[in-house]
């Protein structure tokens, strides 16, 4: 598939609610403006931050689906094998202001004892969370000149989806788990999945990501499938020391829905990777059927382009939902 790099500012929707086809493609920075049209019920907005280190995984989600708002705090202690989670849902969405581009902008939600706030001035992001048994304050830095992956796709005159995937961002801060406060382990990295779109009712996607040190370099992986099929671009890229290398073609995800703890295999042009799961969010459903979201954290091994990957911590997921 031929993919177009979008070099400069682009608005994904016109004033009349139609998709601007000149904005379809991928970028090396958040150049897309995403002012969503008045397509109530089909509009989706989310900020997903995941911070990983040798000792912990901290993921914070704020999402608005028009008819419901979602806030999720999840922490996994890799050393102790313990997890914490708190979730809140607000009917008819969040009464919050949503940034229209992924380069900066604040968002904060609070309900039922759960508070999640992201303060983003473009150079530094402050992540704050409070929930049952969990508190966190983490500072994320965007190094000067650091390249990130933006992808805009569309399959109809009025449906379009955009994501900004920003990985290998240095992070530092603290966690409080059941009253015990500690600093994040050294060499922690943050990854942002920033999404805006007018989506079809039925959605299925795969996503894989990782950030860390490998072979003396700082490596970030972003690989995906299904939601971009036929939309004009893919979300496959390799980030090495802050420089993005786009990967063309599709990536295939092979895993066992009845046993998600078994290795996941990803293959494609220049991609041959295996994930060895360590933590599984979501297990097989009734009669072995998968739940809407299965998310596995673990270590990646294999090769991407000309880079050998060993013990690179990250995750892979599959979502299948009517929304």
- What order do the SSEs take from the amino end to the carboxyl end, as H and E? EEEEEEEEEEEEEEEEEEEEEEEE
- Low-pLDDT stretches: 283-288
Molecular shape: globular
Instruction: Please indicate the percent range of residues in DSSP E strands (runs of 2 or more).
Output: over 45%
Q: Average the pLDDT over all residues and give the rounded result.
A: 95
Number of strands: 24
Return Rg in Å: 18 Å
Quaternary assembly: single chain
Distance between the termini: 28 Å
* Main beta-sheet annotation: 13 strands, antiparallel
Question: How many separate domains?
Answer: 1
The secondary-structure class comes to: mainly beta
Share in helix? under 10%
Total count of helical runs of at least 4 residues: 0
Describe this structure in words.
The structure is a single chain. The protein has strands spanning 10-11, 25-27, 32-33, 43-52, 56-64, 68-77, 82-91, 107-111, 114-120, 124-131, 134-141, 149-154, 160-177, 180-183, 188-198, 202-214, 217-225, 237-240, 243-246, 251-254, 264-268, 271-281, 293-304, 307-322. The strands form three sheets. Strands 2, 4, 5, 6, 7, 8, 9, 10, 11, 12, 13, 14 and 15 form a 13-stranded antiparallel sheet that branches. Strand 8 (107-111) and strand 9 (114-120) form a beta hairpin. The radius of gyration is 18 Å and the shape is globular. The protein has 323 residues and is mainly beta. The chain has one domain (10-322). It is 0% helix and 59% strand.
């Amino acid at each position: 598939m031929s993919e177009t790099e979008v070099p400069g500012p682009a608005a994904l929707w016109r004033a009349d609610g139609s998709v601007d086809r000149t904005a379809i493609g991928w970028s090396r920075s958040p150049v897309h403006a995403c002012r969503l049209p008045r397509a109530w019920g089909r509009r989706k907005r989310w900020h997903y931050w995941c911070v990983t280190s040798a000792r912990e995984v901290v993921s914070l989600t704020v999402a608005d689906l028009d008819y419901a708002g979602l806030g999720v705090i999840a922490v996994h202690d890799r050393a102790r094998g313990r997890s914490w989670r708190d979730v809140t849902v607000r009917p008819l969405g969040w009464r919050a202001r949503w940034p229209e581009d992924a380069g900066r902008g604040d968002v904060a939600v609070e309900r039922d004892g759960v508070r999640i706030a992201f303060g983003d001035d473009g150079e530094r992001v402050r992540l704050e969370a409070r929930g049952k048994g969990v508190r966190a304050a983490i500072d994320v830095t965007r190094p000067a000149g650091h390249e990130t992956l933006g992808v805009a796709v569309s399959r109809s005159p009025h449906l379009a989806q955009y994501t900004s995937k920003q990985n290998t961002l240095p992070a530092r801060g603290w966690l409080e788990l059941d009253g015990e406060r500690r600093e994040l382990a050294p060499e922690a990295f943050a990854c942002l999945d920033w999404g805006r779109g007018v989506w079809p009712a039925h959605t299925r996607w795969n996503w894989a990501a990782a950030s860390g040190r490998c072979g003396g370099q700082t490596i970030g992986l972003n690989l995906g499938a299904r939601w971009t099929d036929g939309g004009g671009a893919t979300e496959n890229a390799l980030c090495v020391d802050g420089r993005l290398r786009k990967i063309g073609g599709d990536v295939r995800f092979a895993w066992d829905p009845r046993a998600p703890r078994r290795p996941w295999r990803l293959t494609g042009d220049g991609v041959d990777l295996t994930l060895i799961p360590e933590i599984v969010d979501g297990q097989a459903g009734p009669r072995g059927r998968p739940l809407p979201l299965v998310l596995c954290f673990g270590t990646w091994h294999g090769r991407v382009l000309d880079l050998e990957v060993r013990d690179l911590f990250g995750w892979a997921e599959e979502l299948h939902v009517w929304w």
